Amino acid sequence: MYSRAAAILLFLAGAIDAAAAPDFFPARSGRADAPILDVYSSLDDPLAQPLIRGFQDANPDIAVRHENMLTGEIYDRIVRETDAGQKTADFAFSSAMDLQVKLTNDGYAQPSNLPLSRSWPAWANWRNTAYALTFEPAVFVYHKPSFVGRKPPSTRAEFVRFLKDAGQSARGRIGTYDIERSGVGFLFMARDQEQFSDIWSVIRAMGEAGVKLYATSSDILERVADGRFLLGYNIVGSYAADWAEHHPDLGIILPTDYTVVISRIGLVPEAAAAPELGRRYLEFFMSAEGQSIMARELHIAAVNPEVAGDNTASTLQDILGAQLRPVPVSPGLMVYLDQVKRARLIARWKDVLGLR
User: Which residues contact 312 (CB under 8 A, 6 or more apart)?
Assistant: First the structure.
């Protein structure tokens, strides 16, 4: 059962945050005075293009200006432009779940009451304003040749036992995110603390094994793929799947005790210059057509329950059930932005890892 889930995950490929100049897509109709949809997104331009093409196929009289930005830059720019009384993007799409919810909570996003709003999964919709549009599990990754003849850990308890049994052979060969530098790493750690009462035994075992810490997924995946590392803990599954497609020695495990799932959130800013265009793009993102493009061409699992196939949240939930723990789109995400609580969690994490 779990091997099928891991195979499905191999089709999930994520987008890496990277700043870039705006990319302009003229209206298909050739209309010179076409209205322009402005998008701020953490989705790389090559991955955004299939969605933009699909949207313009259905809306040939609309031009699109897509600006690829870091997640923090998206938040800062929307706040800065709004507070200055200026217009901002018509649609914002970001993997920073906490920052997108904060925009919503602080009045920088407006409701989008769409036909699909009622049927959208409850965990993925907050106040018909912030919508989770992707479904991306956190996984363990492992170096396949190092586990010939033995089963890689598939739970956190097995992860701890493996590190203790492996001893010196595993020392310095485990990787995970540096939660002080990685936003997604911090989010995973915070969720682990909520989901697993014995999570600190996992952190302690990694510290005793000389765990290596990184800000990006690629740094960890590269080292697991080439055998320098045996294991990677809590890696975004879409990034892992992308690497596994090109590096056959990289294996993926969806942890069977529980699997945290994160999402990228779409919203229409309050100060959007053309909110009706932003809502039209959001509606396309949520539609069966848009979600199918995302699953088929971007290789990111679809959330829309009407979309069929292996690369969907519904299929993964059918296979894994309660094992999956999606991070709800809710004000609870803003807890992770509280600087006092954040500092306290990081301090304990460092202490248990033995970094102080």
Answer: 135, 295, 301, 302, 303, 304
